[in-house]
Amino acid sequence: MTKSAINEYTSPAEQLALSVEPPSCPIPKEPLIRMTKRGSISTAQKVFVYVVSFLSALLVGAFMLLAIGKNPLLAYRDMVVGSFGSSIYLGETIRLAIPLLIAGVAVGFAFKMKFWNIGAEGQILAGGIFCSYLVIHSINNGNYWGKVPLHLVMIILAMAGGALFGFLPAYFKTKWGTNETLFTLMLNYIAIQYVIYLQSLRSWQHPQSTFPKILDFAGPTDNRIMLPRLFGVHIGWVFALAIAITAYFYLTKTKHGYEIAVVGDSLNTARYAGMNTRWIQIRTLLISGAICGFAGYLQVAGANHTLTETTAGGVGFTAITVAWLSKLNPFIMIPISVFIAMLQKGSLFIQMTMGIPASAAELLTGLILFFMLGSEFFIQYRLVFRGTHRAPVRELKEEAGV
């Protein structure tokens, strides 16, 4: 149709609209830095990222130490010496690593199923509470338990207590779809407050004291509660290693482990395959809670010989870091637990030897863990700067892992 024909059949307003050229859309400017997902990364590259992250943490920590007038080289040296410098220091480091490893394995069971168990702290305390009931009853009734039967029943009760605190959130989630993160988190505070309540009971206190504190179990039980020591550390480290090894084979070589992995990948796929997803979730949280409860038993019988609201000591939360740094691999959790225990013991040591404030020592530990966790970002993603031109096909292949 010619221009004259268009003018003949259109109104003046339509002619004006046709004569106006549409505004040109500006081409968006490429961002200075953009993030793209990596397709695949070699083991050597992963090691490089971890090393760079660790060195970066030490560098940032050094600036922090210099800011408060301390020599960073001496501080790092003392952290290592204070953790491994003698058999006593080494024993204390291993003692700190034992509950970290056990709790890390426990939350790893739940995390592999995408069930976010943030309640390991409460499950450890629940285990300590349940087994402490037996000890108190024995003390108040003439110590009628022998050493071996006492410990066997304590283990059963501790695992039952932890399993109960694992069962509750699993049941409520599978029955009514409650949020497991909030549920398990709130159970932590219930356990802490219940221990505080027990401290006020006269039957749990020392007969010659009215201070709200649970008595030390070692003396009244004639040291029956104390675990035997092996290489200067209570034998809990043997159980911790056994639990880590057993968990690895359970998760990778058994039908139950396969079911946990399938439920974690896709709940709908597991249902389509005919799996009883509700029972799998409950069963796994029973195992997770029971393992945490066993850690509570070791804290009461092996480390503290009493029960306080700090018996778990933040282990349940730190275990989450252990699980993530190890990518839920129980074998890798062993060195990770020792590493974090070294940071904790080393930070305490530099407080004494160098007069570094507790807040600064804890900040130093936090910086190192923050950088190590942050390294996972650079393993999963890469940063592309403006002006970095790469062949589109090559980039697509890399992102697809081809």
Name a few traits of the molecule.
two-stranded antiparallel sheet, mainly alpha, 402 residues, 3% strand, globular, two-stranded antiparallel ribbon
Structural description of this entry:
Helix 5 crosses helix 13 (315-325) and helix 7 packs antiparallel against helix 8 (180-199). With 402 residues, this protein is mainly alpha-helical. The two termini are 53 Å apart. It has helices at residues 3-9, 12-19, 43-67, 72-84, 87-112, 120-139, 147-176, 180-199, 236-253, 255-265, 267-272, 277-304, 315-325, 330-353, 358-380, 392-400, and strands spanning 33-37, 229-230, 233-234, 381-385. It has a domain at 102-327. A hairpin with a 2-residue loop joins strand 2 (229-230) and strand 3 (233-234). It is globular and about 100 Å long. The chain has a two-stranded antiparallel sheet with strand order 1-4. A two-stranded antiparallel sheet has the order 2-3.
The assigned structural class equals: mainly alpha
Low-confidence stretches: 391-396
Taking all residues together, what is the mean pLDDT? 88
Number of strands: 4
Order of helices and strands: HHEHHHHHHEEHHHHHHHEH
Q: What's the N-to-C terminus distance? A: 53 Å
Reported for the largest beta sheet, the result is: 2 strands, antiparallel
Binned, the helix content reads 55-70%
Shape: globular
Rg calc: 29 Å
**Arrangement of strands in the largest sheet:** 1-4
Strand content: under 5%
| Number of discrete helical segments | 16
